[in-house]
Amino acid sequence: PWNWFRMMSGRFSRSDLADRYLDRKIFHGATFADLARRRPYTLINATDVSRGSQFSFTQGVFDALCSDLDGVGLSRAVTASLAFTGGFAPVTFRNYAKATCGYRHAAWIDEWLADPLGDIRAHDRASAWASYEDDTRPWPHLLDSGISDNIGARAVGVLFTVQGEPWSVADRIESGGVKRLVVILVDARSGGGSKLDRSPKSPGIASAIGVSAGSPMSAVSSDSIAFVQRYLEDLHACETYFILLRFEAEPDPDLRARLKDLPTTLALPPDTVRMLVEEGPRLLAASPDY
Description:
Largest sheet: 4 strands, antiparallel
Distance between the termini: 50 Å
Order of helices and strands: HHEEHHEHHEHHEHEHH
Number of helices: 11
Mean pLDDT: 83
Structural class: alpha+beta
Low-confidence stretches: none
Number of strands: 6
């Protein structure tokens, strides 16, 4: 209750409470500067509310904000990534004026924007990136990453295709700096049978909203997985390994059904957590590429 007065200010929300809780209980003040610099490459994503586009916590994106990713708390990024509509308020970041940091406009942005009817995915990504160069957007607001990419695979595509940037994986691959590229993609979608089909009664508003949010995400997730698979199949500059982990690969039908029936929630019982922890290595060992 002592937080209610703070939330009345308009500048403090449930997301700020979640950020502080995660920072205190899990991350203990850690920032992006504390992450490993080489491998594995850790990428956290959210959704830009105004544009509906993916926002990736990379230094490249924060260059466009004239900001330093190293100083961003991991709890802040994770809160933005999980801030689903209704449960949390958008997480706000500052976009500083470009004259303050010597920002350099990247050539790939113009290249991708020049052909709006070519690679539409690349064009839209460049358009979203260029929007952060606009000083009339000083406060980008971020929500749940699932709105734009439920499993985060599309952000990997940008790392693989953008060249001429310090963070480019594509340049390292082309130069021979990457000998083996291993992509481990975790698809933890729930897939239990819908209870809506068990009754002739029309679904209520809450049920309809839940289905309309979840079903399209599942379809787009499959498309994202296929995109990464196609890219790796066409990449011949290094050895590639694609490891897909999903509950459908669990051979035990009873366990598979229990896993697929798990809810998306902020809290799980200890027994459920242990079941998930044990399942990860089993699925990994079953992958042919692994």
